[in-house]
Amino acid sequence: GRSVLSRIIMALSFGAAIVTFSPAHSAAAVDSGGGLSIAPVSSGDNNGGITNRSTFSYKLDPGAIQTDSVVVQNLAEEDKTVVLYVANAFTTASGLIGVKANDQAKTGPVDWLKFTTKLPNNTFVLKGLSALTVPFTITIPPNAPPGDYAFGIAVAPESIDPTATPGGNTIQILQAAASLVELRVSGPLIPIVRVGALTVSSEAKLVPGFVDGSTKVTFEVVNIGNQRINAVIQLVERNLFDTVIHREPAIKLGNVLPGSRVKLTRSWDNDPYIKGSVSVEITTGTATSATRSVNFWSVSWRTFVVPLMLIAAIFALRWRIRKHRSDRDAAELAALKSGTAGSAGAAQAESAIGRP
């Protein structure tokens, strides 16, 4: 039968589903690449000037209430029906901060932000080449745990069920823009990092010590504390004799948010001589660090093919030699027995002839 595949691909800011953050980040509005942009509203400074912000950044006490506004702009000439939403942030494998799509599960601080402008289902029509300022309020619960939080305010075109051609596929691409909200709830900060799942797979060598193989390491950087950390990861491989045979260049992973579990993979050529080990060490520039290691075998069945074939050939040769000797000895014994029997018969015949 004819089938229709309808997929919605949500690409966040910078056209790569990633909202980048760094202290030197530009204060310009984030452009989705799809004709929408979003940015914090400009705020006044103590000298009566205007301060442009790249992100929303707050340090608040439990029970505090923070008001602010976000500016959404339609860069295209035609009107757009858009959806404004709040979603959790996460740390990417490259150390950037991403904002999840609107249809993904939302937890924690996302519920603390409420838009104060009445927008049915947070959906509205944005005129071409126009902008809308949307105020919001962040209410910190009195019992909110201290630490760092991150989420995003995003805008995307309204999703409309696409019409597919008979028997064809329809792909609807929604490009969103997001602005990052960084929030620290006052209280004790406890940075804790761990090495999560750690696995090593080895492409073994045919001849250990002469033909290189490769090692592939997959591991997780887990932030179980309440403070955002910047991690530096060192991977070291040792061989059967506990000698360091490879030291991977330091991996810098920034913006590891509390609760994040970032999965990384590295691979390299090596020769651990049948058995080896890989250690993962994480430092953060704080009091927390973590180390974990795993042993692994780096042996291919092909490594034993030649020795086993040689052993089998030796045993076969020895068996043939023994069999040959056994057959020869048996033949000689049979000949000897035959000769002995013939001599005895002749002697008996001579004895019979000589009788009177």
Tag the structure with descriptive keywords.
single chain; mainly beta; Immunoglobulin-like; 2 domains; 6-stranded mixed beta sheet; 5-stranded antiparallel beta sheet; 1 helix; 23 strands; disordered N terminus
3D structure, described in words:
- By secondary structure, the chain is mainly beta.
- The chain has 1 helix and 23 strands.
- The chain is elongated.
- Mean pLDDT is 82; it is low at 1-26.
The multimeric state of the shown protein is single chain
Give the strand tally: 23
Helix content: 10-25%
Radius of gyration (Å): 38 Å
Mean pLDDT, rounded to whole units? 82
CATH architecture of the largest domain: Sandwich
Specify the overall morphology. elongated
Number of domains: 2
Strand content: over 45%
